[in-house]
What we know:
The chain is α+β, with helices and mostly antiparallel strands. It has helices spanning 34-41, 43-58, 76-79, and strands at 72-75, 83-85, 89-91, 99-106, 113-118, 122-128, 136-142. The longest helix is centred in the first third of the chain and has 16 residues, at 43-58. It is globular. The chain starts with 33 loop residues before the first helix and ends in a 12-residue tail after the last strand. The model is unreliable at 149-154 (pLDDT under 50).
Amino acid sequence: MKSICGTDCTECGLNRECKGCRETDGRPFGETCMVAAYCQKGEAALRELKEKLIEELNGLDIPDMEEVTDLNPLKGSVINISYGLPGMQSAKFWNDNSIYLGNQLCKKGSDRCYGIAADDKYLMVSEYGANGSDAQIVVFKRWNRIAGLCPDSH
């Protein structure tokens, strides 16, 4: 399989279920891949989105979070952990079959991690323990007021 963004598909653990973004015109899991959509706009589009998003994330000034220096394409099902809500309910916030930009950073002085996930409109920073346990939302917000940069994003 060949990717649009330059990702080495042979190294991906999801390559057996993925249909490839070149073969599916940027819809490897049936939903539009935001990363592929930006790459199709031109070489600079994805880089500019990442730079803007990294600036926004670092501007949150979360005290124990390492500086965000890179974001990687991640399938929604990989980042879509459950968050406890009042009344014993839980919720997930991302589409399992979409591709987002994200990363995992260590929480300074702790065995917990920060998970970062974003598309071209919303970002989330969450904190969790091993294997996504005891997940808590730190920030969930609309970050990009220029909505609709990605054709089929939510």
